[in-house]
Design a protein that fits this description.
single chain; 79 residues; alpha+beta
Amino acid sequence: MSDDLKLVYTGSRVESLFLVEILEENGIEVMRKDTLSASVQAGWADGSPEDAVRIFVLTAEYEKAKKVLNEYFESRDSK
């Protein structure tokens, strides 16, 4: 993995799709890596549905991305 990218999320495929959309709406470019899907296509299963996807952002956008995600998680958990 490049030093220019930082991990901001590890979790489910469904939630990751939503989070990618939120980040992109806030002008943050993302790289989404689905390890479970990639391993199944290769012929074996690696990982679990709960931690199948990782979302990376550019290091320069890391703080902004963490703020956006934290706001989302706080609003989601308070309902």
